């Protein structure tokens, strides 16, 4: 009997966390993500080489005890640049997703709560943005503004908010007619307080899931734009521009250590984040049985 009471007294977040721990793919993704984030953050402690130190006498060195992943065309240690590149790629994913979530949540809650002409205007803006092919617009804007890490963050964030805006709007439309929202209105709370204190806390689950998957999209966008020379500007390393630097036929045939490690990191990072995002979606879905 006491066990049943303890289970019933669990909050939705505690139940979701218990579900997440039972999802093997999600925990594998979370573990891989933690490993990559840790080695990127503590990169100076894991390598004795400078990120941009040039040593042309040791260019294109094969992996060895001295250089674990060899060196590039300028003699720079590939392992070191891979670690520091993880900082850049993860930063782009986090910042661009934060921008997209901020814009999407503000516009989605505003349109969903107020409805009417405000909702129609916001949704037509969403429709317009969704008609733009992401990479085409991103390439044009990056070509105009020039390659920069900040440009990649802003472009990815501004072009990636439409999905979360639609999700938030749908959640708000279902929540604003609930009894506790009607009670808040009866108590005299204004629209801003109702949205901030009552609606947003109740839609945090889909926002968290979208943000998790959005980080993967941000990393992939950075890799794509940097590969095309429109993203992070060398000598600052990112996984995308490391792949771009190794796209010559000579490197593809003879210098595998220049493109396989960054390619694998991009692949496993996207895969692990998607595993974690899918696990969070299942764990935080209140419609699923315990």
From TrEMBL:
The UniProt transmembrane annotation reads 25-46, 88-109, 121-143, 149-168, 199-220, 256-277
The membrane topology noted for this protein in its Swiss-Prot or TrEMBL record is: Multi-pass membrane protein
Assigned keywords, A-Z: Cell membrane, Membrane, Transmembrane, Transmembrane helix, Transport
* Entry keyword Transport: yes
Q: Which CDD domains match?
A: TM_PBP2
Checking Gene3D superfamilies in the record gives: MetI-like
The chain positions of domain ABC transmembrane type-1 read 86-277
Q: Which InterPro entries match?
A: BP-dependent_transpt_permease (IPR050366), MetI-like (IPR000515), MetI-like_sf (IPR035906), Oligopeptide_permease_AppC (IPR053523), OppC_N (IPR025966)
State its location(s). Answer: Cell membrane
Pfam families tied to this protein: BPD_transp_1 (PF00528), OppC_N (PF12911)
- NCBIfam families recorded for this chain? Opp4C
UniProt lists the family membership as follows: Belongs to the binding-protein-dependent transport system permease family.
Q: What is this protein called?
A: ABC transporter permease
* Origin species: Fusibacter ferrireducens
């Amino acid at each position: 009997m006491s066990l049943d009471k303890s289970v019933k007294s669990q909050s939705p977040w505690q139940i979701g966390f218990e579900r997440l721990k039972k999802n093997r793919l999600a925990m594998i993704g979370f573990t891989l993500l933690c490993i990559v984030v840790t080695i990127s953050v503590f990169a100076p402690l894991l390598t004795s080489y400078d990120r941009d130190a040039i040593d042309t006498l040791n260019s294109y060195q094969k992996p060895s005890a001295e250089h674990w992943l060899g060196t590039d065309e300028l003699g720079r240690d590939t392992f070191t640049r891979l670690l520091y590149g993880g900082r850049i790629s993860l930063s782009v994913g986090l910042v661009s997703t934060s921008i997209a979530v901020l814009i999407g949540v503000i516009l989605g809650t505003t349109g969903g709560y107020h409805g009417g002409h405000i909702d129609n205007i916001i949704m037509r803006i969403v429709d317009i943005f969704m008609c733009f092919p992401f990479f085409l617009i991103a390439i044009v804007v990056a070509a105009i503004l020039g390659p920069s890490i900040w440009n990649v963050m802003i472009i990815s964030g501004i072009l990636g908010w439409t999905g979360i805006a639609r999700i938030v709007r749908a959640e708000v439309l279902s929540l604003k007619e609930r009894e506790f929202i009607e009670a808040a209105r009866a108590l005299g709370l204004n629209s801003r307080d109702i949205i901030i204190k009552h609606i947003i806390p109740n839609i945090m689950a889909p926002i968290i899931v979208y943000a998790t998957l959005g980080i993967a999209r941000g990393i992939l966008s950075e890799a794509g734009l940097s590969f095309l020379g429109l993203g992070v500007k060398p000598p600052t390393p990112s996984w995308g521009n490391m792949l771009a630097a190794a796209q010559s036929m000579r490197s593809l045939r003879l210098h595998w250590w220049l493109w396989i490690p960054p390619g694998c990191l991009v692949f496993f990072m996207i895969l692990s984040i998607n595993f974690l995002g899918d696990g969070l979606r299942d764990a935080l879905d209140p419609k699923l049985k315990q």
